Amino acid sequence: MHRFFLGSSSYHFIDLERPVDETRRLLLASGIAGATIAAIPAIASRAATSPPSPRKKRPHDMKSITIKDGTELFYKDWGSGQPIVFHHGWPLSSDDWDTQLLFFLDQGFRVIAHDRRGHGRSSQTADGNDMDTYASDFAALAEHLDLRDAVHVGHSTGGGEAARYVARHGAGRVSKLVLIGAVPPQMLKTPSNPGGLPLEVFDDLRKQLAANRAAFYWDFPVPFYGFNRPGTPLSEPLRANWWRQGMLGGAKAHYDCIAAFSATDFTEDLKQITVPTLVMHGDDDQIVPIADSALLSAKLLKNPTLKVYKGLPHGMCTTHADLINQDLLAFIRGT
To answer: Which DSSP string do the residues of 289-314 spell out, in sequence order?
Structure first.
């Protein structure tokens, strides 16, 4: 039962673990003599006692910055050209954007994606798991990378993060914004947001996460990708990849993030955003219902374009990547 879920042609190899006498015989048979043989005991001794040399960090290795509170943020920064920044959803990581990163890299863009604090390979934070901190964290990364003329693409919770960043920190650095299946303006039902989801929905998410996070994350991708809809086959690889990303993050940060994505009110952020903004949403989104999200956001933004995808799920960036990528490309290039 599923609940509602938001040099030479020949080589001689020396096995330093062989007894020294046996190794000595092998070297003699290979024509290696004199000083080499005399050095074997010392070589064997060093091999047994010396720690391995530290591996030098290569340019393609993990990149991270440390925020002022000591939190380490992992990020990917590939290519050159106009930067496109991708903000991932809860409880995933920058890996959720793999298809988009490779596509836009091939189109000649610089692509950047980070793991939000408490998610993926970033620090498993106990504090600061809120939208204000998420936005300021990324502001530090944007300054570190000197990002300008950037297009920001946010999915789900990442849409909230992107909206707050653009509204509060993006002046002079942002050219366009894209919100995909995004949580703004607000998910939680309140007197000012009567169409939102009741608090009990989010309390249930917290309850399931605290009771058995692994099982909860195994079930969540089913409505996320629409696998519970007739005629939609379950993709075990997608489900397993979703679960993998979720379990990589921290339980406390993920628990706190439920309040961050549900209770935060982005109304004023949306009103302040002046850059062209594409709002993309599937009308069969079972995680972030379209009526109280995209349809309202498009009315609050100053320069919006609303694009509704009939029958598509919350995870449409993955299930329908070709379609979404082409629409993103057209918006970014202004065609």
So the answer is: -GGGTHHHHHHH-SSEEEEEETT--T
At residue 335, the pLDDT reads: 65
CA-based R_g, the chain, Å: 25
pLDDT of residue 324: 98
Of 114, 155, 281, 314, the active-site residue reads 314
| Local structure of residue 207 (DSSP, 8 states) | H
| Angle in degrees, CA 150, 153, 157, rounded to 5 | 135
Residue count of the chain? 335
Beta strands in the chain (DSSP E): 63-66, 72-78, 83-87, 110-114, 150-155, 174-180, 277-282, 304-309
Marked catalytic residue, from 285, 292, 293, 297: 285
Q: Cβ(278)–Cβ(177) under 8 Å?
A: yes
Q: Is 156 a catalytic residue?
A: yes
Say whether 9 is catalytic.
Answer: no
- Crossing angle of helices 199-211 and 251-263, rounded to 10°: 170
Q: Are strands 63-66 and 72-78 parallel, antiparallel or unpaired?
A: antiparallel
Structure tokens at 227: 């696998």
- Copy the structure tokens of residue 215: 């099982």
Query: Most distant CA pair in the chain: distance in Å?
Result: 89
Distance between CA atoms of 28 and 25, rounded to whole angstroms? 5
Q: Which CATH fold topology does 63-333 show?
A: Rossmann fold (3.40.50)
Token reading at 1: 């039962």
Annotated catalytic residue within 94, 122, 123, 156 = 156
Domain with CATH 3.40.50.1820 in the chain: 63-333
User: How far apart (Å, rounded) are the C-alpha atoms in residues 254 and 72?
Assistant: 16
| Catalytic-residue membership of 96 | no
- pLDDT-based confidence at residue 62 (cuts at 50, 70, 90): low
* Side chain identity at residue 35, one-letter code: A
Helical H segments across 128-229, by residue range: 131-145, 157-169, 199-211, 213-219, 221-224
Dump pLDDT digits (tens) for 187-218. Answer: 999 999 999 999 999 999 999 999 999 999 99
